[in-house]
Structures are given as structure tokens and as C-alpha cells.
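Translate structure to sequence.
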């Protein structure tokens, strides 16, 4: 029921049925790559950011130097894979 996308440098949550803006995370550009324990995992530049899915608040920012791509095998609570600029592929398992 929610669509997440970056608009003019800020992450926004939209009601999928009506198109209404539910919240805006001002100054947080990025792409939602997964959901972990009910929180959004956002790739923003060289960092991964945990965002509260209900309010859009930034909960934690984790710098990941050299990160090129982030992938997951399941959108919700799946394994997370990070590809680095040096060719390293790291897998992170949910706890």
C-alpha cells in the first residue's frame, strides 16, 4: 500500500491507492532496497540508512565506503548483498 521514491533530493512515501504523500524524509536522497524488522533500508550515496517506515525518521546511518550496489534475495528480512568497487561481494544475514 505504500510507494517509496526520491523526489527532489528527499525520500517520500506515497499512498499507493490515492497518491497522497504520507511523509517526507527531507534531505535524504536514496533508494529503498529492503525492509528489515519493519524498518526501511535505504541506499543513500555511500551509506545505508535505517528509516522508520511509518514516520520517515532516520534511525541510523551506516557508512559503507566503496559500496557500488546493494541487493537482497527477499524484500523483507532477507539476506543482504553488497558489491564493492574493489569487486568484493559481502553477504549479511538477518539476526
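Result:
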Amino acid at each position: 500500500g505504500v510507494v517509496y521514491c526520491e523526489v527532489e533530493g528527499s525520500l517520500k512515501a506515497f499512498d499507493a491507492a490515492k497518491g497522497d504523500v504520507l511523509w517526507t524524509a527531507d534531505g535524504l536522497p536514496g533508494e529503498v532496497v529492503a525492509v528489515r524488522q519493519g524498518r526501511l533500508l535505504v541506499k543513500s550515496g555511500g551509506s545505508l540508512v535505517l528509516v522508520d517506515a511509518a514516520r520517515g525518521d532516520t534511525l541510523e546511518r551506516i557508512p559503507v565506503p566503496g559500496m557500488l550496489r546493494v541487493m537482497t534475495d527477499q524484500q523483507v528480512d532477507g539476506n543482504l548483498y553488497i558489491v564493492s568497487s574493489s569487486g568484493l561481494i559481502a553477504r549479511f544475514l538477518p539476526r
